[in-house]
Design goal:
homodimer; mainly alpha; DNA-binding
Chain lengths: ~180, ~180
DNA sequence: CCTTTTCTGTAATGATCGCTAAAAATATCA
DNA sequence: TGATATTTTTAGCGATCATTACAGAAAAGG
């Protein structure tokens, strides 16, 4: 997972994977089927563990708390010393050659799913009068998630935890300035 | 340029490049030296032409006009029918294998340069009383550029021109809401 | 027209890509 | 212990990677 996360799908070779896991190539293929299927498993694992901060955050009682926790969780994950910079959903395969097209599309779909999850949480907040009735949940979610992906790009450029926190704070200023 | 832009540095093979240009491999090497040097030329070309909207925007008389034009230019470029989705500075090599590490760093450095250019423009605006004296140009620039990179990620996921415009409008709401 | 230079095309370099057949070693269980 | 599964290792698959040596064609200059 760390290799795919750090170097992207295309940038990670089978040799690097087997060497990191400590097994031979046929063992990897017996266990996972192919590089793409291994990445599939890695993606599930990523969503289950380091990226679980997103669904967790959305369970907060108020939209404001949820978004705050969302950004805090993202920053904590990104700034974790043992983690590569950024988010696997972005770094994994933002642009890719024809061979990795399927992975690219899958990551794009997963990003969209994350955005819709946030959108539904904000819609609930509007319904609960937690957000003003005229608030547009779809636009808000699109905006906030865009900042989140942008922070992933910034992390890839070496942004510090403090810089990311400032960005998140400014982004939330749109709603609760 | 379009190939590197669409498929990233690693995702673009020499065969794809020579076939697109319509020359043989030795001619490409005689003309550009190597794949990496060709990418260097491509990057210069990209900054000179489709990405010139950034320096152009910063020449607007007010910070607000500058940022508006910055986002408008970015959206126009991204939504251009004949252009790949997103920004070469982001899609080119956000994460990459060891062989493309130099390119990755160069793109990160170029992104940082763009951010600093915006920062200096905002600092000027503060000095000119165009922005409130207590405004933090560095944080503002970091925030706005983060949204810009995020829009590049969204574009890679198929975001439309209208969606990007809404995001930009919300992002500017932080300053001129 | 002939020589010299410049360019283009063919072909192949070693390396690495993802992937797999078959032998060797190990574990399982009667 | 001995026969049977299961796993690991070795070795190599064809394809493609970026890169280049070399031969032939075109262009330039006298």
């Amino acid at each position: 997972m760390l290799l795919f996360w750090r170097h992207g799908y295309e940038g990670t070779s089978l040799a690097a994977l087997t060497s990191a896991i400590g097994i031979n190539t046929p063992s990897l293929y017996a266990a996972f089927g192919s590089k793409e299927q291994l990445f599939q498993k890695v993606l599930e694992r990523y969503l289950r563990n380091p990226a679980c901060y997103l669904p967790n955050a959305l369970q907060e009682p108020t939209a404001r708390k949820a978004v705050e926790k969302l950004f805090a969780g993202a920053i904590r994950m990104v700034a974790h010393v043992r983690h590569p910079d950024g988010c696997l959903l972005v770094q994994g395969a933002l642009a890719a050659g024809p061979a990795a097209e399927a992975v690219r599309r899958q990551l794009a779909a997963t990003r969209r799913r994350a955005q819709r999850a946030l959108q539904r949480r904000l819609e609930r907040a509007v319904a609960e009068r937690d957000l003003p009735r005229r608030a547009n949940a779809e636009r808000l979610a699109g905006y906030l998630i865009t900042v989140l992906w942008g922070m992933s790009v910034q992390a890839a450029g070496g942004a510090t935890r403090g810089e990311l926190a400032e960005i998140a704070s400014m982004a939330m200023g749109v709603l609760w300035g």
